[in-house]
Structures are given as structure tokens and as C-alpha cells.
Amino acid sequence: MCGIIGVTSTEPVAPKLADGVRRLEYRGYDSVGLATLDGGAIGIRKGVGKVDEVDAQLDFAAAAGNTGIAHCRWGTHGGITHNNAHPHLSPNGKVAIVHNGIIENYLALKQDLQANGHAFASETDTEVIAHLIELELEHGGTLKDAVHRASKQLVGSYALGVLSADEPGTLVATRNESPLVIGFGDREHLIASDVAAILTHTDTVVYLDNHEVAVLTAESCAIYDDGGFAIDKQREKIDWDMEAAEKGGFEHFMLKEIHEQPGKLADTISPRLRDHEVVFEAETGVTAEVLRGIDRVIFLACGTSWHAAMVGEFLFEELAKTPAEVEYASEFRYRNAPIPPGTLVVAMSQSGETADTNAALEEAVRRGTRTLAVCNVRGSTMTRIAHHTVYTHAGPEIGVASTKAFTTQIAALYLLNIAMAQAKGVLNQQQIDSMIQGLRQAPLQVEQILDQNDTIQKIAKHFTSRSNAIYLGRGVHFPIALEGALKLKEISYIHAEGYPAAEMKHGPIALIDKQMPVVVIAPTDKLTYQKTLGNIEEVKARDGVVIAIATEGDQTIAQLADHTIYIPESLYSIGPLLSVIPLQLLSYHVAELRGCDVDKPRNLSKVVTVE
Ligand code: AGP
Asked: Measured between alpha carbons, how far is 253 from 23 in angstroms, rounded to an integer?
């Protein structure tokens, strides 16, 4: 996906554009550019590479003009080239545009335009929009009218920032599916793909809804609905502070966010706990009566959020005694999976903007199913689709590899389960008290694991020259094996797979040799510990290198494994909150040792707003 920002002010905007696009860079860093309007002329500065690289060549802050737009790109249509970098211009050079999203009918539109003599400078879908806006301007009306009419021809997702040389000082914005926020600054207005880009200039925002059009100047903000009628929208106060969106002295955002987990877990858990019960009816609208009526849960998610959903499946079955299943959102949306009455569809997302998850959620809503979002970004698209939202209080997660969002998602699901178990009366008060106690202890236990950072960094050295790795876990720790493998592969580029430990004998064991590190999650639990010990012995018998995640005090495993990382003893169902922490640190240090770009890994972006 991409990041867009725009500013119209009473003072030069280029420094704000450069700063904003730097804060959006985790959304895409193939190329970057800005356009500013100085009197009646549009100036463009853009290039291939990350913001710092291109800025060093082109000096973004020197661009003149009090109105401007900027963009950082994760390429979807067309290669990573100068011509494909945004902003794009219309044929007469009088309209400039930046775009986040995918226009699915761009080829047909482009062919029509080419048949009418239009020549294109790029391979992108975005440039087609610039041509359409110019054509609409020729039909009369303002830039706002032209943008509105042009957007009616588009099929797909878009968040647009548009300038016209004929309307100095005016910035027009509109969206469909891709996120867009409007900021109210001091004698200036801003637009951005997310709040982090503009938080230093304002804490007052409005979230644009699909097909709405905003017309901004330094002194005015007018918003129109799809029918072209002026509307008023609720302004929201953002309670993040900029320090929360900075590295706070850590080398990388990812490391900072790993270490933030004790505090963010406490922020997510504590406000919802009262002595002997969970309380979040007031904030979510999820009443005990609603919970009693839930016979089944279907999870929808992608990536790390899908792994959190896998833990949630276990929690609903084990704690709330309620059947649950996990669907890849990208698959569910194209299937006609039956959704029986009494089903709660739970969508999991850090960003709340993942296109596949939102589309699948919309399908569930369309079919009349009750829906709940577990999400980290207040006011994001997902939270406005779902009937209910349980927010994780992880704060802005900048690192592309999700960490604190994952553990706070699990904590949120744990709270929902306690509430459901209470409502259904399926657990007695002693059991509920025990779970609440377990949740309360989790942040401190995570802190204890983080103290092993140096030990884990030493173990990471054994991975740096490896090409493959296997992660094994059983029961509630199988999703953690999947998550540990994803963390390693997405930031260190080592191929890693997660398996149920028992599955190893059904094929993967053929991969085991002295070049294959095998991470085994083996906390002492009554059901599967002995079996997992057997798996470790099978790996060792084939010269595999075993890194074990074990319960404090377990000397048995320490005799078997090549390396052991200990986690505190806990309730089995609390275990995932703890066993994932060493795997997050391990992947971070491996990637760091391999010289990878930990916060902005190749080919990835933080938010996948395309399908
Ligand atoms: C996780 O480390 C990845 N960055 C990715 O799998 C991510 O979890 C996925 O894209 C879903 O994002 P979401 O939680 O914002 O929906």
C-alpha cells in the first residue's frame, strides 16, 4: 500500500510534507515524491528510493508553495521507476494527484483515453485518474466537481489528494475503501493516510467515509456526501502523543514495540477488569445477553492477526465452551460458507484497514450476522463496519512486523472469553478468578522474559547463516509456532515454517539436519509436554539444532536442547502471551545481525489495503 499526505496552509508546506511522508514510509518505500502549488505553477520532486535517499538528492523542504501533496509508494501497477513514482500530472500539467489503492478498471479506462489520443508517462493506474479529472474540468465546474465526477468512473479502492494550478490554495480529497483522515491545524488543513503523519500539527481529525469529497483551503474545510450535499462530520480528538510514534531511544520501532508490551498489555487488560469480572459492555455494546446468544464464532483475519485468531479459537473452545473456527479473510470472502444463526463473526486487525479482512467482514454484515472487530486503530474502517469493537490499547505500531498488536489482540480475546464464560455460566467463580489473576500477572511475566534479551541475542547468532528454520508447537502454542516462523521470515528473509509438533513425522522431519535450526515451544503442561519431549529427541537423533522455549526450572529440556529460553510458569491458556516473546526477540536479533531493514523489510508494507 502507499501513504499519502496533503497540506494547505498560510505558510510553505514542503517541510510538513517531507516530515509526513517520512512518518508514512512504513506503508511503502519503493519511491517518494511531492507536488507543491506556488502561485499558478505546480512543482514536482520525486524519485526512486526511500525518503531520506530521495530527499538528499532533491531537497524536498525547498519546494515553494503553501499547498501541496506527497506520496510514498509500494508499487502495485508498474515497476519501481521514476515515471511510476507519485505525484502524477494530467496531460496539460495543471492537475497533480497522489493515490493510495488499486483502480481495478484502470486498463479499460486507459485504453478509452488512448483511443482518444491520450498519451501516458507511466504504467500506473493513478495517472489515469489525473487524465479523467482534466477531462472533467473541461466539462466545467470546480476541481471538487471534476474529482467527484471522475471518481464515479472508478472501480476499486482509492484515497486521493488532488491539486489544480487553476485553484491555488485548494486541496481536494476523496476516498473509497482506502483510509483518509482530515486534520484541523492552525490556519491550515491536512489530509493523510493515517494520523501518525499529521499528529505533530493537530490532534483534531475527521475520518472521511467512502465517496465523500473534502474541499480544503488554509482557512476552510467543506465536506460533501456522495450526492454532492454539504455535510457536517464529528471531529475526534486523538489521544496519542508524538513520543508514542517515535523510537524512544531504541534502534528500531520493532524493538521498542516489543519492549512496550508489558505496558500495552496492562493498558488493554486493566481498564476492563473489576475484582471478579470483566466489564466492557459500556464500551462495546456487547451485553451478557448478546454473549449468551452466541453459539459459534467465526474469525476473519490475515497474517499475524490470523495467528491471534488461531489462539482465539482455542480460547473460545477451552474457556467459553463455544465452537470457533478461523478463516483466512481472503478466502472467506469468495466462498459461500454457511453462517448459522447465533454466529458471532470476529474480525481481527491491527490497522483496521486490511482490504481482505474488511471485505470479508462486510460480507458477514451483508448476510445479517452479528460482527465484532478487535482492532488497534480508533475510527479505522473496520471499526465502522462492525457492530461492535473491542480496541487493543497498543498505541501506534510502526514496525511492519506486528508484535505488541499481536499480544494485545490475544489479551482482548481472553477478556471476551472471560465475559462470555461468565455470561454463559460455563466456568465457576474460582476458575474465572484464576484466569483474571493470570491476566493480571501477564505484563510482569512478559517483562521478565524481556530481561533475557542478551541471552536471546547470543542464540540468534546460530541462525544468521542459515537458510531455513522450523518452528514446532502443540495445542495453544501451535499458532505461536506459526507466528514465530512468520516473524523470522518477514524480517530476516530466512525461510521458516511452523508446524504442529506431531506433524513433523508426516514429512517435515525429512528436512532435519545440522543446518536446520528447530525452535520447539515446550512449556510443561499436563497434556502434551512428554510428547513434545519426544519430538525434540527425534530432531536431535537427526543432528537438528534445537532451540527450546521451556518453563522456568525445567532441567529435563535443558539436557536435550542445544539452547533453552525460559518463560515463567502460567495457566496453559495464558501461555501464548509469554511463549511468543522470545520468538519476537529472536527474529529481531537474527534480522539485525543479518543487516536487514528490520522496520521496513523488503517487499512488505505495514497495511495491506489492496486485495
Ligand atoms: C505481521 O507481522 C505482518 N506485518 C502482516 O502479516 C499483518 O499481520 C497482516 O497484514 C494483517 O494486518 P492487520 O492486522 O493490520 O489486519
From this structure: 12
| Separation of alpha carbons 85 and 298, rounded Å | 40
Among residues 50, 487, 600, 606, the one annotated as catalytic is 606
pLDDT, the chain, mean: 94
* d(C-alpha 492, C-alpha 465), whole Å: 11
In this structure, the answer to whether residues 543 and 508 fall within a common structural domain is yes
- Residue in the block written with cell 519430538: 535
Known active-site residue 237? no
Instruction: Check whether 8 has a pLDDT greater than 90.
Output: yes
The residue whose grid cell reads 484541523 is 184
CA-CA-CA-CA torsion sign (605, 607, 610, 611): positive
Say yes or no: 395 and 259 in one domain.
yes
402 within ligand 1 shell (Cβ under 6 A): yes
Ligand 1 atom with least separation from CA of 487: 2
CB-ligand 1 contact for 381 (6 Å cutoff)? no
Judge if the beta carbon of residue 151 lies within 6 A of ligand 1: no
Taking residues 51-78, report their average pLDDT.
91
Distance CA 419, CA 409 (A): 15
| Nearest residue (CA) to ligand 1, atom 7 | 303
What is the longest distance spanned by two Cα atoms in the chain? 80
Tell me: do 228 and 177 sit in the same domain.
yes
Active site residue 375: no
Nearest to 286 by CA among 382, 434, 377, 415: 415
Same-domain check for residues 436 and 502: no
Same domain, 82 and 230: yes
Ligand 1 atom showing the smallest separation from residue 405 Cα:
14
Environment class of residue 234 by beta-carbon count within 10 Å: exposed (0-12), middle (13-18) or buried (19+)? exposed
Chain centroid to CA 475: 26
Cα 402 to ligand 1 centroid, rounded to whole Å:
6
Task: Judge if 159 and 300 occupy the same domain.
Answer: no
Nearest CA, atom 6, ligand 1: 303
List % helix, strand, coil for the chain (3-state, nearest 5): 40, 25, 35
Same domain, yes or no: 52 and 198: yes
- Please report the sign of the dihedral spanned by the C-alpha atoms of residue 76, residue 80, residue 81, residue 85: positive
Query: Quick one: pLDDT at residue 394?
Result: 94
What CATH number should be reported for the domain holding residue 163? 3.60.20.10
SS (H, E, C) 325-374: EEEEHHHHCCCCCCCCCCEEEEEEECCCCCHHHHHHHHHHHHCCCEEEEE
423-478, pLDDT tens digit by residue?
Answer: 999 999 999 999 999 999 999 999 999 989 989 999 999 899 999 999 999 999 99
Q: Are residues 267 and 406 in the same domain?
A: yes
Pair 440, 430: CB distance under 8 Å: no
Phi and psi torsions of 237, nearest 5°: -95, 130
Looking at residues 589-594, what average pLDDT do you find? 97
Nearest to 160 by CA among 121, 215, 118, 92: 215
Specify the 3-state DSSP secondary structure of 495: strand
What CA–CA distances, in Å, run from 511 to 102, 542, 587? 40, 10, 21
Task: Tell me whether residue 608 is in a domain.
Answer: no
